[in-house]
Amino acid sequence: MVTKNSALLEKKLEQTIKARKALETARKHQVDVLSNFAAKLSLSCKGQDVALDNQLAKFRGVLQKGMGFEELEPLIESMNEILKHQEATINTNNRALQQSISQAGKQLQKIRGLPEDGRRKLRHLLDHELSNINTTNDYIPILEKLSGIYQQALQLKLSKADIVSDQGEVQQSPEIANELLNLANELTFDEDVSQEVKAIKNAISLNDSIDSLLNSSLNIIKVIVKSISRERQSAQGFLVSLNQTLEELNSSIVATTKHSQNVNKQITNLNKQIESKIEGLNARTQQATSISELKSLVDGELKLLSQDLIERERIESEDKKALYESFEKINDRINVLESKVNTYKKRLSEQRFKSLLDGLTKLPNRAAFDDRFNQEFHQFGINKGDVTLVVIDVDHFKSINDKYGHSAGDKTLQVIARALKKAIRKTDFIARYGGEEFVLLMPGMHLQHAKPPLEKLRSVIKSIPFKFKETQVQITISLGATQFKDGDTPLAAFDRADSALYEAKNSGRDRLCLRE
Ligand SMILES: Nc1nc2c(ncn2[C@@H]2O[C@H](COP(=O)(O)OP(=O)(O)OP(=O)(O)O)[C@@H](O)[C@H]2O)c(=O)[nH]1
């Protein structure tokens, strides 16, 4: 019985030992997996904090040796302490990162001419994505997007600035060439500089290397200096002749005054003479004793008196004649003066008119547009009437220049300008903003109502039968429109129309886009 019991006990013991071994093996496996995992996890935390790195290295060493929990516990405690600080540091860093991303984004928003899709992405990123961040990793896609938009902006800037090759030599700069062309377009002081300006424009469009552009800039400055000095000479000439005429006028008046003073003296003397003769006659008539004596006395004195009176009349009539002649002369000189002043006034007003007119298309230029734009904006501030603003840009205009020459490009701009002017209302205002860009102001026109006439404008241009070098060419325009709204600034309104134009360009050109 005892043997049977002990055999049973032995068997149970064996089973228990086996179960315990299986449990230990499973436990060891679990501890190995966990240790491995903890070691990997600790490696991924590496690099955040030196003290934490040291503790983690020790931690991994202890795990590798398979030491007990007693050795791990103090390490875990000190790492916990470090991690607590680490969390606070990460939070502060994240806040700083968020702030700097937001600042960088706002800075980017200020860049003019950023493509519309970049501008939209940026707005979404700043208004929504940036405020929905929970972990540091969430910043990564945002930073990627931001760096993409930065690249776009950088490209935009680079295309505007000088591009220097790896070898250090300055290459082409199409944007500067554009600006110079616009400047050259405004040089329309006198007919005789128009040929020079034409030659400069040709040079700019044929070669936009920095050296050649510098040369063209120099030539533009020379034309300006020449026109200014001619203008100054002409102003000086006018002042000299004005002065001369005034001097002549003055000496005429002085001579006339002197003459009149002389005549006055002569007449006063004669009057005195006549008076004393009358007095003498009076005294002698009282002494006369007979009629015959009285008669001969009066006869003699009257003869003398009448001679004096005739003399006085002669002097007076000569004086009148001299005065009349002198006034005639003065009048002539005043007339000459007046006509000189009028000629100069006319020239000045022509100059002002010309300086507000684009030389090539004869449409108002950018300066004229700025004047009118500010005026309309001011008016809008007072009466809040509808004003639609449209920016119009000729599509692929560069290729016209490239394929058919700059003169063909010029002619195209003239034809388009004429067609645009013809197609708008009398109350609208169109100007050449620069290059192949036009701006249109439509006072009293609501943006939605502007759609049909603007679509018509687009199709009018599209249907012009351009022909270059025997080739029929269709030219299209893209339009971006907006309207003034409360709280606007001229710049904000213009930017809206401009970004609507970008949208029209980016979505295929030959179209109108509206931006409320
Ligand atoms: N003939 C001529 N060309 C001009 C004048 N002013 C600017 N340009 C040219 O206009 C072209 C404008 O080109 P881009 O700004 O690249 O635009 P685009 O070719 O019209 O293309 P999209 O606007 O993108 O459709 C440049 O080649 C300028 O040299 C001008 O007065 N006369």
From TrEMBL:
Residues 385-516 form the GGDEF domain. GO terms for biological process: cell adhesion involved in single-species biofilm formation; negative regulation of bacterial-type flagellum-dependent cell motility. Its cofactor is Mg(2+). One of its GO terms (cellular component) is plasma membrane. It comes from the Bacteria. It is an enzyme of class 2 (transferase). Pfam families: DGCcoil, GGDEF. PROSITE patterns: GGDEF. PANTHER family: DIGUANYLATE CYCLASE DGCM-RELATED, REGULATORY COMPONENTS OF SENSORY TRANSDUCTION SYSTEM. NCBIfam families: GGDEF. This is diguanylate cyclase. It comes from Pseudoalteromonas caenipelagi.
